[in-house]
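Hi R.,

Here's the chain you asked about this morning:
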Amino acid sequence: MAMLLSLWGGTMIFADAVSQKVRVVINGIEQDEGGVLQDGKTYLPLRQVAEALGAVVRWDDDNKRAVIYKPNVHMFLYNDKNSTFGGVNKGYQGKIKVFSQIDNVKTDLSAVKVTIEDPFGKERFIQSENVTNNNDSFWFVTDEFDYKFDATGKYKIRFYMKLSGSEEWVSVSEKLVSSTAKS
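And here is the predicted structure, written out as tokens:
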């Protein structure tokens, strides 16, 4: 038993000496899981990095490979006066729509959705829709909705995709709207 513990301890010390933990920071945000530096190469948790970069990962079990898809999603907001905006004064802005232009979709989707998150982290669902034809490009425009920018700060509009055969929503685009005090 003592010999087994000695071998196990020596193996753990050797493995720790060969590889080092690395902190991973993406766009200024330190990730929950770090990476490992081994033999001069850095290994990172694929799903975490892909999601932080607005991509989705699909596991291909037949070929034992992970496939990353990075769609292009461009969003803008406009109000009932058909004015586009990216910054607002604190308060009510009239009825709002989110216009999303999506292209470079290289995998089948089952649904898309849009949400808004206030500066305190409270997320509100805006709208979702099932995807019935899987074109590599399409537009998604939400119905009009009321939203009051109650606080000053950054609001996050997020576009999510759900891959066909999955129940998981993945954020693939984020637009920031700054709300400032009225001047």
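One quick note: The two ends are 75 Å apart (CA to CA).

Cheers,
M.
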